[in-house]
Specification:
Layout lengths: L7 H8 L4 H5 L7 H9 L2 E7 L5 E7 L6 E4 L2 E6 L7 H8 L2 E7 L6 E11 L2 H5 L10 E13 L2 H6 L16 H9 L7 H17 L3
Antiparallel strand pairs: 1-2, 1-5, 3-4, 4-7, 5-6, 6-7
Helix pairs in contact: 7-8
Length: 210
């Protein structure tokens, strides 16, 4: 059996204490730097959990500034059309605690925001997020409890933004084939079904982004 650490005291004794600055950098609300970071960011990852603690992380992306900063303690994320699983929304109505990681292409540091979320259907607010004349049906309001910049070590190790890090997507099957093979439970999807699935996915990308 692998050696494990299963209590806070042992963890801290093993890892050590953080420097004061690493603790003090966490702000209880958004400052000018956090607000600018959000305004520049076209992408974030949203972490949620249900009432039993089962977790999920979901991507959110749009043009820079798609996340609205309503005030020093509140942001709003439009909920664009998807597959209607609404995993994040389902979790939020059961457990409002959320964590967000904002990224900016070319920036190796990130912005972490933690808080409590709610699912919003306010028409006036949603209309501010309209794209091509289409307002989202719902959105996620986050009451910020903590925000801080995260250092660049993960990006430096991964070389995420380096051109030489780009991989050839064609080296793996299309998303339609992967999903069809998975639900076929080892039998493999028929070529005709994969072609139809690929066409459906591309049509969805073309016509249902907003």
């Amino acid at each position: 059996m692998a050696a494990t650490i299963d209590d806070q005291k042992s963890l801290r004794e093993f890892v050590g204490d953080p420097i004061d600055l690493a603790v003090m950098k966490a702000r209880p609300k958004l400052d000018k730097y956090s607000k600018e970071f959000i305004s520049r960011s076209p992408f974030l990852s949203l972490g949620t959990a249900d009432s039993d603690g089962k977790v999920d992380v979901s991507p959110r992306g749009d043009a820079p500034g798609f996340v609205l900063v309503l005030d020093d303690s509140t942001i709003f994320i439009p909920e664009r059309p998807g597959n209607r699983r609404v995993d994040s929304l389902s979790n939020i109505v059961s457990n409002p605690n959320v964590g967000l990681l904002f990224m900016i292409p070319g920036f190796e540091d990130t912005l972490r925001v933690n808080g409590r979320a709610s699912v919003v259907t306010d028409a006036a607010l949603l209309e501010q997020c309209a794209v091509k004349g289409k307002a989202p049906k719902t959105g996620i309001r986050v009451d910020v409890e903590e925000a801080y910049i995260h250092c660049a070590k993960a990006f430096k190790r991964s070389k995420l933004w380096e051109p030489e890090s780009l991989q050839d997507r064609s080296e793996m099957p299309s998303i339609a084939k992967i999903i069809l093979d998975q639900v076929a439970e080892g039998e493999g999807a028929a070529d005709g079904d994969v072609a139809a699935g690929d066409e459906l996915v591309e049509d969805d990308y073309k016509n249902n982004l907003y």
